[in-house]
Amino acid sequence: MKKWGVLVLCILGICISWSVFHLKYKQGTPLQPTKSLKEYPTYFFSVPILELSSTGVPYLIIQIEGKKIKVELDLGFRGEATFSKEVIQNIKGKTFVGQRTMYGARGKSYQKKEYKAPKIHIGNLAMRNCLMQEDVDEFLLDSYLATNSSLPHTEASGRIGWEIFKNCNLFLDLPNSQIAFCDSAQTLETHGYPIKEFAKTPLHTERGFIEMLVENPQGSSEIWVFDTGTTWNVINANDNSLSIEEMISEPQNKITRAFNIGNIIFDSVVFYKIPVPLPIHVDAILGMDFLKNHQVFIDFTHRQIYISHE
What CATH number has the domain spanning 185-307? Predict the structure, then answer.
C-alpha cells in the first residue's frame, strides 16, 4: 500500500447535478456554423491529455473567451463544467442561472452557484449553452482523502464532467495520453483500433453516472461506475462504522479480484474497500488505476461501452 502521509491517496469525484448542452463542430477549414456534429456522417479527432495530476487524474486544456484553462477530466462528475471562483469571475459572457445541490464523496450536500457559459472549446469542439458551476472549497476538500485538512496541490482551475460529452461519443485512449471524439465503433476500427476484440456492455446514465453491469466472481450482476476523477478502483464496503480514512488504513481492505463483461474476464484488478455514502447505491467504481491501462469507447449514441482487454 502507498505510504499514507503527505500523499493524497484517492479522489472520489462523484457528484450529482443536471445540465443540458448543444454541440457544434469545427476542424481544419471552418464549417458552416449552423450545422451540428450529427450532420457529419463520420468524424474522428483527438485531444491530447496534457499530463496526469499528482493523484493520477487527466489534465486537459480548454478555452473560454480565448483564454486557456487547465482542467481535470472527471467523468464521475455529473455536470458539464465546474471552475474556481476566480475563473468564473473572469468569464464576461456568463449568465447566472441559480443554485445547484451537489453531493460530495462522503454524502454531504452543498449548494453551488451555476451559470450558463459562453462557448467552451475542447480541441476542435465548440460547446454552446453549457452550464458551469462555481467551486466551493469545502466541497473540494470533501472529495479528497488526505491526512490533513488542507487541499492538495493541483494545477487545474476546474473540472469537465461527463455530461459535456453526451451529444457525441467519447474514446478514452489514456494509455496513449489522448481522448478522441468519434461517431462510431466502425470509424474507430478504420483508425486501427481492434474494437471487435473489446468487451462490450450496455451503457447506463439514467442515475446520473456512467454506469455498466458487470458479473462478479460469484456470478451475480453488479452496478459499476466509470470515474476518471477517482484515483483508485473502489469496492463499496457498505460499512459506516469506520471513516473512509480508517478503512483505507486497514491492509485487509486492499483486495485483488476479477470481473466479467460478457465472456471476457478482467482478472487481478486491485480494489480498495471504501464506503461510498451516496444517495444511490453503487457496487464499485473503476478509477484511473484501471482506466489508465485500458482503452474505453463510450458510445452515447448507441448506449454501449467498449473496453479493451489488454
Answer: 2.40.70.10
What tens digit of pLDDT does each residue of 203-239 get? 999 999 999 999 988 889 999 999 999 899 999 987 6
Cα 279 from Cα 270, distance rounded (Å) = 25
Contacts of 106 (CB under 8 A, 6+ apart): 142, 244, 277
Averaged pLDDT for residues 177-183 = 95
Q: Which fold has domain 11-26+37-167?
A: Cathepsin D, subunit A; domain 1 (2.40.70)
Cell of 212: 455498466
Cell matching residue 178: 489522448
Give which of 232, 91, 76, 101 is closest to 159, Cα–Cα: 76
pTM of the entire predicted model: 0.83
Residue type, 215: E
CATH 2.40.70.10 in the chain: give the residue spans.
11-26+37-167, 185-307
**CB 69, CB 151: distance < 8 Å:** no
**Low-confidence winner among 2-6, 48-52, 235-239 (lowest mean pLDDT):** 2-6
Q: Identify the helix (H) or strand (E) that includes residue 139.
A: helix 137-142
